[in-house]
Amino acid sequence: MAQLIKIQTEALEPWKEIITFQNNNFQGDTNFGATATFVGTMRDLNEGDEVLEMTLEHYPAMTEKQLQGIIDEANDKWPLLHILLMHRVGSIKPADPIVLVAVWSAHRAAAFDGCRFLMEALKHQAPFWKKENLLSGESRWVSENTPGTS
Amino acid sequence: MQAVKILYFASLRELLGVAEANLDVSSEMDAASVWKAVNPSVDLPEASLVAINQAYASLDAIVQPGDELAFFPPVTGG
Asked: Quick check: A7 contacting B, CB < 8 Å?
């Protein structure tokens, strides 16, 4: 199975990354029947304020460890074949992709559930922080995540 | 004697004006005592999180010489 964790300051192009990951890691594979993906993108509105730009900071050594731990946990829970986890840091503009979670498995249940688990665990455990620069000129740290369930 | 390396992230780094500090720990100290020793005039903001050697820990976890101790606000990635 292939796993890739990548944190980058360069622009994230999720759909290209998925194709590259597939081409690099499972050419000829015929065992996967389901691919679930989640892409998180920066919005231009948060808590009623227009956001011009965001800076994403992280704790590099801990981020790697946490994400690997989350992947290990997902692998214990579901029969996943491949996992791709990518996250932007640095300066981000509205409509820029921030995070990509992609999961491959034989059947859809593991793919859907594993993808969701990875995304929620990343949100709650991985040490990333967002600071917003608002249209008003103010800048502020985002204090908490939005709920992951509707 | 090996020091404990202390890291601050995001709003805590801005609050303190520094990204890291060092403290020589001779006696047994927990994470909360290290904060107090290094930042005697600043209370650790409520809801702050603690990590020892890049793993989440509680405020009363004992810190050993050579450890990397980090303080940071709730995480907001993704």
From this structure: no
Following DSSP, what letter does each residue of A11-55 receive, concatenated?
PP-HHHHHHHHHHHH-TT-----EEEEEEEE--SEETTEEEEEEE
pLDDT band for position A56 (50/70/90)?
very high
The chain B residues in contact with chain A (CB within 8 A) are 7, 9-11, 51, 54-56, 68, 70, 72-78
CB atoms inside a 10 Å sphere around CB A26: 16
Q: What is the CATH number of the domain that holds B10?
A: 3.10.20.30
For B42, phi then psi, to 5°, come to: -125, 120
Examine residue B78 and state whether it is found in any structural domain, yes or no: no
In this prediction, the answer to ipTM > 0.85 reads: yes
On whether residue B77 sits in a domain, the answer given is no
The C-alpha angle A31, A37, A41, rounded to 5 degrees, equals 160
Q: For B3-27, what is each residue's pLDDT tens digit?
A: 999 999 999 999 999 999 999 987 8
CATH 3.90.1170.40 fits domain A2-17+33-141: yes
Q: In what order do the strands lie in the sheet with B3-8?
A: B20-24, B3-8, B68-72, B49-52, B55-57
Cβ-defined contact of A130 to B76 (cutoff 8 Å): yes
Range of the domain at B30: 3-72
Structure tokens, A118:
């990875």
